[in-house]
């Protein structure tokens, strides 16, 4: 999971890839469930007084039944959160991607500001849905199972294309890797670019 270069231009020092479900040993959310969102969602999720994920952990801790939510359950719950805000005519103007690993299977889910939700092998939001998503789908059509290095190379290729094609983008990004052992968020990383090809680009004047 990687936040696109474009969203990082708004608040460059704010992380958008995190594991919101980290908590005490009896926390309801598994550590294999990171979320990615932009500023409006993060401010709702982690305000100083406690956001929606901390409150969810506290409620489940008080029940004391040892129940933990799967990434799919967190995704379904966020669908209700987003739809509830939309129904109040006060939506969270954001698209959230939930990634996770549970029972030996990976999970990737999408929720937008209207509460529209679905699961897919690859997901991209914003400008990435037009340029990065076709590239990822093309690779997975040829090879359904990628190694971690192959997946990383593919994401870097997608981010590089987004960086080249968007004048408001920024070459810093974060990379979240999800396994059964947990979530590792790397970054901010720097995207290497080669602008020697700029003179061959035409048709955008």
UniProtKB/TrEMBL annotation:
Residues 22-33 have a biased composition (Pro residues). One of its GO terms (cellular component) is proteasome core complex. Keywords: Nucleus, Proteasome. InterPro entries: Ntn_hydrolases_N, Proteasome_sua/b, Proteasome_suB-type. The keyword Nucleus applies. GO terms for biological process: proteolysis involved in protein catabolic process. Signal peptide: none annotated. SUPFAM superfamilies: N-terminal nucleophile aminohydrolases (Ntn hydrolases) (SSF56235). Residues 1-34 are annotated as: Disordered. The keyword Transmembrane helix does not apply. This is Proteasome subunit beta type-4. The gene is PSMB4.
């Amino acid at each position: 999971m990687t936040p696109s270069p474009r969203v990082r231009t708004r608040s460059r020092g704010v992380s958008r890839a995190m594991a919101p479900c980290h908590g005490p040993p009896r926390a309801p959310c598994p550590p294999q469930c990171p979320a990615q969102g932009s500023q409006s969602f993060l401010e709702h999720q982690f305000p100083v007084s406690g956001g929606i994920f901390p409150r969810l952990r506290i409620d489940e801790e008080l029940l004391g039944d040892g129940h933990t939510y799967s990434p799919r359950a967190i995704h379904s719950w966020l669908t209700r959160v987003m739809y509830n805000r939309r129904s109040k005519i006060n939506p969270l103007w954001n698209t959230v991607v939930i990634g996770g690993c549970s029972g030996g299977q990976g999970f990737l889910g999408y929720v937008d500001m209207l509460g529209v939700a679905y699961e897919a092998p690859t997901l991209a939001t914003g400008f990435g849905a037009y340029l990065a998503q076709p590239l990822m789908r093309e690779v997975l059509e040829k090879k359904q199972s990628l190694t971690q290095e192959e997946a990383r190379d593919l994401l870097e290729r997608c981010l590089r294309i987004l960086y080249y094609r968007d004048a408001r983008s920024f070459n810093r990004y974060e990379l979240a890797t999800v396994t059964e052992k947990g979530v590792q968020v790397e970054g901010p990383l720097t995207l290497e670019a080669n602008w020697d090809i700029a003179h061959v680009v035409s048709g955008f004047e």
